[in-house]
Amino acid sequence: MKSKYIYSFSASSFLLLAGALLAQREGGAFSNLPEIFSGTTQTKGGTVSIDRNARFKPKEVLVKFKENAGESVKTYAASSLGGRIAENLSHNGLSKVALPEGKSIEEAVQEYSNHPDVEFAQPNYVYHTTGTPNDALFTTLWGLKNTGQTIVSGTYNPSTAPSNNPGSSGSDMDAVNAWDVNHDCTNTVVAVVDTGANYNHVDLNANIWTSGSCVSETGASLGACPYGGWDYVDGDNSPMDLNGHGTHVTGTIAAVGSNTIGTTGLCWTAQLMPVRALDDWGSGYTADIVKGINFAVRNGAKVVNLSLGGPSYDPALRSAIALAGINQDVLFVVAAGNETSNLASKNSFPCKFPEANILCVAALDQAYSLASFSNFDTSSVWVDIGAPGTNIRSTWAGREVSDSGTNFATWTTSSNNTASSKSIWTYAPQGSCFSNFSALYLSINCSDGAGGEIVNGYLNNITTTAYKTYTYLSGMDRVHASFYLFLDTEPLYDVFSLNYSNSAGLPSFSGTVLDSYAGEMNGNYAYLQYQLPNCTGSSTNCSFGFKFNSNSSIAKAGIVIAGFEFSALDVDDTAQYNILNGTSMATPHVAGLAALLRSFNPKFTYQDTIDAIVSGGRTTSSLQGKTKYGKAADANGALRFLKAPSSLTLVAP
User: Fold this and answer.
1) Where is this region: Disordered (predicted)?
2) Residues 214, 362 within the same domain
3) Structural domain that includes position 45
4) DSSP run (H or E) holding 62
5) What is the mean pLDDT of residues 570-598?
6) pLDDT digits (tens, 9 = 90+) for 393-405
7) 3-class SS of residue 326
């Protein structure tokens, strides 16, 4: 494999600044719908501005053609600009366009935005990865019933605030009293557009929606959907979760209640529709998320959970959400984000879309303080309400084997020259070079290697390796490795390579070369992620390692590896649970409540549902001045606050 020549490293990702007017959400009709496209259409004849902090998929853009543009018009428009229609994403003119070699995203967005048959063009953005039952783990679900219990193995531990574990008795959604009114959500299909879900999980399987005649995002017949939804990452009818996030979210909404095992969701019984739009790293593109939303809406979902977010204004995503509300009365419950940002001045989408059918959720800890990581909003416009979001136990995708790399001392190292520390990999424990990570370095010392400003950090004419063999039970469905890389070597000649194999021992001898690098990052770093497919299936070993070869001239600063993580997942173990933190975990608490409300009376609109959640919410001091309503979602309060549906009329006998 060719080595990669790195002149300097910086994030090759961008954000289209659409300049849209983000009006305050109103409770009524979508009077501001035309603004969805205003940010892009106003660039006609002007210059598109690109922010280089966001991420998007290379070599393609999303183009929204005008309503009267047929297939021939779209094909001609794309070909006239050197591209081609790769895929139609919806029935209303949104298409994915493949770009010719050498054309930048910025150039393509500019050209298509100025085309007379186009409403807007944008990058394909990246999003990341929010009655008492007899379930065995119910006592750990503090968000549903908080008795002041301590969550054993809780992972929420902020550096600048108390963890509030244990928390405050009564700081919960009062679900137990709500369940006296309703715990059945089978009248409402709830879609989770995420990393998928382990639909075979013992606490989910009975609540998974299925269909013998589902349709695609464009309305085409797909035949049967026996596993609950669709997979827009791999393009099939099996939205199996290879990450865990989506399974966790799904369980908070509707893990089977009162079945003597595991946890319970807000809904004990439900119709859960997992849609896989994020990959096994927890990342996904606008195109797949939009298709996932359109699939869910066309197949009857009335509540959609989006525990995802990104920093970029995204008219394609906004349009999908808006049209779902206008045409199908769909409510979207979305995460506020985990950047500790004030959304009065910072961005997190879809939370900051102004559509009335969006409810944006912040995270609360066990004492109902705002979680240290949660985004908030002092303008009281965008973040609507709070819900439990720390130390949340829920269903998990399967059995995991993981290693966070906190002890590189267990790795095996070798070199053809052991006389100098500059010729063999050296271990730096956590705190000695990086506060949060241990490190492995080949340099005079770890700090100089990461800084990239010295010379002769390593010796010439060396071959040095470092690796570790992981042993586990066979049957793994996903195996990953990831780490941060600081690199400063002689371009072209001093080569750092990554290798792995499905056998024990040094992988550079018998394994696969994943990548090779040589060059200068100038003190910057790359975060690298690799799938290790040869280590899945019947394999019981997986060896991962690094190899470095230098030639006889010019030695640079060296190499530093930090934050290494190895992870393997077996989805056949269907009785696993996990504890997570995030607005991603808060969001499904509210989505589950929305499903309870809409199932209790299916005539309720999305606006009736929002009104009940807000009016029945609990005034919470930590949310005052930080959210629109200053309230935490309260299941009992919402169910008992239900007003008559707005669409009903009295007919005299």
Assistant:
1) 153-173
2) yes
3) 14-128
4) strand 56-65
5) 97
6) 999 999 998 887 6
7) helix
Residue 8 inside a domain? The answer is no
Phi, psi angle pair for 37, to nearest 5°: -100, -5
Asked if residue 169 belongs to a domain, the reply is no
Token pair of 477 as six digits: 């469905």
DSSP bridge partners of 215:
221
Average pLDDT, the chain: 88
The catalytic site residues sit at 194, 245, 584
Residue 342 and residue 225 share a domain: yes
Q: Where are the beta strands (DSSP E) in 241-351?
A: 269-276, 283-285, 301-306, 331-335
For residues 366 and 501, membership in a common domain is answered with no
State the CATH number of the domain containing residue 87.
3.30.70.80
CATH (domain of 376) = 3.40.50.200
Question: By the 8 A CB rule, do 297 and 322 touch?
Answer: no
Residue 354 reports pLDDT greater than 70:
yes
Q: How far apart are alpha carbons 244 and 242 in whole angstroms?
A: 6
* CATH number of the domain within which 462 lies: 2.60.120.200
Strand partners, 548: 464, 496
- Smallest CA-to-CA distance from 108 within 161, 171, 40 is with 40
318 shares a domain with 203: yes
Say if CB 560 and CB 441 are below 8 A apart: yes
481 and 528 assigned to the same domain: yes
Number of domains present in the structure of the chain: 3
211 contacts 229 by C-beta, under 8 angstroms: no
Q: Give the HSE-up count for residue 450: Cα atoms under 13 Å, Cβ half-sphere.
A: 18
Q: Residues with Cβ < 8 Å from 111, sequence gap 6 or more?
A: 81, 121
What token pair was written down for 45? Answer: 């004849």
User: Can you read off the two tokens belonging to residue 54?
Assistant: 């966001």
Could you say which of 525, 549, 570 is where a domain stops? 570
Q: In this predicted structure, what is the pLDDT of residue 492?
A: 93
Q: In what order do the strands lie in the sheet with 56-65?
A: 84-88, 94-98, 56-65, 118-128, 283-285
| Shared-domain flag, residues 315 and 181 | yes
Q: Which residues contact 337 (CB under 8 A, 6 or more apart)?
A: 309, 343, 348, 351, 374, 375, 583
pLDDT above 70 for 22: no
The full 3-state SS of 487-545, as one line of letters, equals: EECCCCCCEEEEEEECCCCCHHHHCEEEEEEEEECCCCCEEEEEECHHHCECCCEEEEE
How far, in Å, CA of 185 to CA of 46, rounded? 50
Specify the pTM.
Answer: 0.85
Domain co-membership, 187 together with 325: yes
Give pLDDT, residue 17.
Answer: 21
